[in-house]
Design goal:
14% of the residues lie in helices and 49% in strands. By secondary structure, the protein is mainly beta. The strands form 2 sheets. Strands 2, 3, 4, 5 and 6 form a 5-stranded antiparallel sheet that branches. It has a 3-stranded mixed sheet with strand order 1-8-7, with no helix packed on it. A hairpin with a 3-residue loop joins β2 and β3.
């Protein structure tokens, strides 16, 4: 009985150990696209509009904060043939003025250097 159990165990291990796993057919993700807007300089509370790939529009709003920081808010949208606007992403972050920041927008990202033009006193 011990010999039979041992032989059965070895046969099962040999069968399972020798089988090859099926190859995975998952597609590799496409390289994420980065839309670099360069330096975006607007007045405090102002906005900057641009067009992205895939028929998407992007509005970047900048608001000055204390310590040379800037609130960066973006709205990425797409307008269909009937004129309906669909919001795709609304990323936001706080960054230092003059330093590059990247915002994730779903299908890629938007990179920019925020600069707020303060009103002269």
């Amino acid at each position: 009985m011990k010999t039979f159990t041992l032989a059965l165990t070895v046969a099962v291990i040999a069968f399972v150990g020798c089988s090859k796993p099926e190859a995975s057919h998952t597609a590799l993700p496409a390289a994420a696209t980065v839309s670099d807007l360069g330096t975006v300089a607007v007045s405090d509370g102002g906005s900057y509009d641009c067009t992205l790939s895939g028929g998407r529009d992007c509005r970047v709003c900048l608001r000055a904060l204390a310590d040379h920081r800037v609130m960066v808010e973006a709205v990425v949208s797409r307008t269909d043939a009937q004129g309906n606007v669909r919001i795709l992403a609304r990323p936001h972050t706080v960054a230092k003025s003059g330093e590059k920041v990247t915002l994730e927008i779903g299908e890629g990202s938007v990179a920019l250097i925020p600069e707020v033009k303060l009103a002269a006193k």
